[in-house]
Amino acid sequence: MSLLADLQNILDSxxxxxxxxxxxxxxDWRGRYMGKALAVVRPSxxxxxxxxxxxxxxxxxxxxxQGGNTGLCGGATPSNKGDAVVILMTRLNKILNxxxxxxxxxxxxxxxxxxxxxAAEQAGRLFPLSLASEGSCTIGGNxxxxxxxxxxxxxxxxxxxxxxLQVVTAxxxxxxxxxxxxxxxxxxxxxxxxxxxxxTLGIITAATLKLYPLPVAQVTALLAFEDIAxxxxxxxxxxxxxxxxxxxxxxxxxxxxxxxxxxMPEIKMPFEPEKAPWYALIEISDAESxxxxxxxxxxxxxxxxxAGELADAVIAESQQQSQSLWHIRESIPLVxxxxxxxxxxxxxxxxxxxxxxxxxxxxQLQTLLPxxxxxxxxxxxxxxxxxxxxxxxxxxxxxxxxxxxxxKVVFDSVSAFGGSISAEHGIGQLKKDLLLDYKDEVELAxxxxxKRALDPHALLNPGKVISSVERY
Length: 472
What we know:
- The protein has helices at 3-10, 46-58, 113-122, 139-144, 152-155, 190-194, 228-242, 254-263, 290-306, 319-339, 354-368, 403-416, 435-438, 441-454; strands spanning 16-17, 39-41, 63-66, 85-88, 95-99, 104-108, 125-126, 162-168, 174-177, 203-210, 212-213, 217-225, 246-253, 278-286, 312-315, 342-343, 346-348, 373-379, 384-390.
- By secondary structure, it is of the alpha+beta class.
- Strand 18 and strand 19 form a beta hairpin.
- Helix 1 (3-10) packs antiparallel against helix 2, helix 8 (254-263) packs across helix 10 and helix 11 (354-368) runs antiparallel to helix 12.
- The longest helix has 21 residues, at 319-339.
- Belongs to the FAD-binding oxidoreductase/transferase type 4 family.
């Protein structure tokens, strides 16, 4: 028998894909990474995942787990060796339980994020994780990368929204940790170990998630102001004025606004991009009433105008207008992909140092590559920026050849300001080697020990996240 034949005995042959049928799952959605595989398999149950893992152990075959394939760091793409099995989790897509008294929902890892959001809303609850890719990304992928999104300021990352996990280990054992407990102080926190590990320590097959009350009302506004330092002042004013009601504070540069205007002319822009150098999309969620939310919002915005912080502001008058404002923000990465090559960064620095970081790093990049574009946007409320660098006019061809030099400038600056080279996108294969330069050696040594302990044959997603624990 062969591995392929044994896999076909476990699954219907239509769920063991090879050749052209497997091709769509062997590259990332941006087209930056292309790999090969022995097969792509589509299990529909935990038992089938277990059987696949045990077979791969028997045949000493690497495994790459994939969800919606929306990642940005190549973490779900196999290598070019062609020796791996890709385990596609999208058929494990059941919502197993909703407990409104405990405010929890248990779902399989292949559930789309949008499906989970909608199921929570139908139960009168909120699942607050929100990403631009929510219509195609899966909960398993969200947890594997500890996804962030636009409401981290209020609710935290995917890790903070998870109470329990079910995980298939490298040996094919099942850890059933689907406990809906907010307090469980009985040893090592295995849940948080697997979340963010990008499939290198185990395969997440299900999760118990936190739910929240649905807000009675939400108010959204787009603010225009002069510089990031002013934006931070407005953020602090909003934190004080709104308290826990503040759910989102998204920074957008005028360059990003102009990109959206050019790339998606069908979108109605509330301001001309040249209205101000910087913008913030801000949202509050209120538990009392729409009128209360509006009054509170207008009070804080008025204070900001009186202090001379704002050049202009547009407050959404309806849910449709609110969605239109968010559509601008969510269109930024899509438009960037259409308009030209960018070298992307997902970084975090302390909010207090954000303005200086951007000013210093922009200047250093202009010295390195005069005329580069600064496509800066992201989650100012939690210190996470998507600090992207675009090609100078007329120099798009071959611009990505500068990636190593640009990374050096940006990540050296991030390190100097006490930040992280990955805030919410993960490490994957894109940043694996960079960890050697920007992560403490003791941390790296501990990570390697954990990897060897939980995956001694290095079969789970080899070549991702951590260096020096490789098969070859």
